[in-house]
């Protein structure tokens, strides 16, 4: 079973692309705290269609989110001709936790916006 749930902070701006006239893809990096002074792990998250639009509209660097999805492995040839390998999380569900970053004077009643995927890619 390929299922993963992660909670972390958005580490990059969301990039959205139109793949086909009826398909959108949003990607962003998620920083997952290891706990203590150990630092963080960074993973790429891919969201599709309506979920991609919502991520592009509401997510910003520093925002805390929970992501449910699956791991997809990728490979490509690097500029030096060597084979490279990686992975990303294909989101089935993204839930916004808390409000916008605290450095944006939005006050204590910041909005929580949960949503689920309309369609997966």
Describe this structure in words.
The chain is mostly beta strands. The protein has a single domain (4-100), classed as Nucleic acid-binding proteins (OB fold (Dihydrolipoamide Acetyltransferase, E2P)). The chain contains one helix and seven strands, in the order ββββαβββ. The protein has one helix spanning 49-58, and strands at 4-10, 15-20, 23-33, 40-48, 64-77, 83-97, 114-116. It has a five-stranded mixed barrel. Strand 5 (64-77) and strand 6 form a beta hairpin. The longest helix has 10 residues, at 49-58. The chain starts with a strand and ends in a 5-residue tail after the last strand.
Please give the CATH class: Mainly Beta
Q: List low-confidence stretches.
A: 102-121
The total of helices stands at 1
Oligomeric grouping of the chains: single chain
Percentage of residues in helical conformation: under 10%
Taking the sheet with the most strands, its summary is: 5 strands, mixed, barrel
Over the alpha carbons, how many angstroms does the gyration radius reach? 15 Å
Helix/strand/pairing class, anyone? mainly beta
SSE series: EEEEHEEE
CATH names the topology as: OB fold (Dihydrolipoamide Acetyltransferase, E2P)
Question: Helices and strands in order, then pairings?
Answer:
Layout: E1 4-10, E2 15-20, E3 23-33, E4 40-48, H1 49-58, E5 64-77, E6 83-97, E7 114-116
Notable characteristics:
about 120 residues; OB fold (Dihydrolipoamide Acetyltransferase, E2P); 1 helix; about 55% strand; disordered C terminus
């Amino acid at each position: 079973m390929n299922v993963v749930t992660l909670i972390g902070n958005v580490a990059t701006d969301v990039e959205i692309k139109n793949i086909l006239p009826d398909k959108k893809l949003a990607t962003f990096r998620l920083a997952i705290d290891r706990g203590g002074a150990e630092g963080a792990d960074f993973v790429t998250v891919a969201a599709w269609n309506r979920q991609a639009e919502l991520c592009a509209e509401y997510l910003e660097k520093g925002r805390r989110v929970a992501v449910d999805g699956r791991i997809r492995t990728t490979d490509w040839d690097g500029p030096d001709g060597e084979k490279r390998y990686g992975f990303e999380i294909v989101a089935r569900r993204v839930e916004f936790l808390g409000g916008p970053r605290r450095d944006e004077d939005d006050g204590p009643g910041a909005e929580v916006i949960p949503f689920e995927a309309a369609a997966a890619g």
